[in-house]
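[step 3/7] inverse_fold.run input=structure_tokens len=272
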């Protein structure tokens, strides 16, 4: 028989605004997995990883190593969802990534439910589980029989989950759930740091792009004014008209004006 779906609260208004994902709760206590806590090691990984996707892959690979045993390989994937950002998925293997891509396609599955409702989601056997509709059919075609999704608590409107897959039914019992929650708790603090770093990095990148775009448009306007002997407003009208007629961004049209006279578009530089 299928594992009963646990009682879960309906999404709040804030959750609905965040595609069904909840506003995360406060910090949970860090739980050690295996010989000892890996929280400090994960914090170091945050600083060593060039971007958040690489860090998530490290988490998935470590989780797969923790839960795998001789003759019983476990695939692990990590899903990160942030407002107004494309979801980030990575995994310990191509199979794990494919599993989470199937969830994204159907917008349902143990990992998504764990992230949305902030509670574990266990599938004892996909052959008998009836909760996921077409998603289940697609998963069975891959040979996966059981799965476990656990939430990774984050700040604000971000949500994440750790997903474990096995080709054997009944792979994940209550002890597996507690171990996975412990690992997710260890990963939580480090992932919060990684998300904050990514947020500030993205903000700086967007600011740099905005400054580059504005400077490029201003220079192109000056070039048109000189070539056409027209006013600033008239030069801007020419740029906007070209942008509209070619269905091209104004900044790209401006960049083409600069390139036409052999000048590269400007790039903003920040001193740290």
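[step 3/7] decode complete -> sequence:
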């Amino acid at each position: 028989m299928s594992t009963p779906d646990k009682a879960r609260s309906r999404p709040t208004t804030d959750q609905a605004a965040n595609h069904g994902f909840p506003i995360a709760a406060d910090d949970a206590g860090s739980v050690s997995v295996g010989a000892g806590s890996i929280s400090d090691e994960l914090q170091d990984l945050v600083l060593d990883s060039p971007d958040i996707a690489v860090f998530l892959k490290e988490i998935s690979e470590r989780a797969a190593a923790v839960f795998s045993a001789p003759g019983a390989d476990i695939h692990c994937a990590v899903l990160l969802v942030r407002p107004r950002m494309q979801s980030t998925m990575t995994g310990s293997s191509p199979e794990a990534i494919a599993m989470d891509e199937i969830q994204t396609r159907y917008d349902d599955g143990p990992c998504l439910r764990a992230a949305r409702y902030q509670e574990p989601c266990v599938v004892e056997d996909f052959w008998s589980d009836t909760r996921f509709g077409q998603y289940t059919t697609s998963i069975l075609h891959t040979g996966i029989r059981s799965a476990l999704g656990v939430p990774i608590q984050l700040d604000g409107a971000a949500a994440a989950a750790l997903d474990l897959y096995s080709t054997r039914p009944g792979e994940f019992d209550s002890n597996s759930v507690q171990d996975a929650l412990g690992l997710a708790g260890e990963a939580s603090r480090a992932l919060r740091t990684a998300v904050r770093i990514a947020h500030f990095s993205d903000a700086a990148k967007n600011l740099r792009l905005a400054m580059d775009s504005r400077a490029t448009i201003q220079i192109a306007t000056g070039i048109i004014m000189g070539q056409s002997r027209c006013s600033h407003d008239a030069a801007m009208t020419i740029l906007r008209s070209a942008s509209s007629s070619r269905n091209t961004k104004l900044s790209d049209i401006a960049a083409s004006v600069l390139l036409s006279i052999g000048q590269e578009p400007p790039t903003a530089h920040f001193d740290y």
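[step 4/7] annotate
The chain has a mean pLDDT of 79.
DSSP finds nine helices and five strands in the chain.
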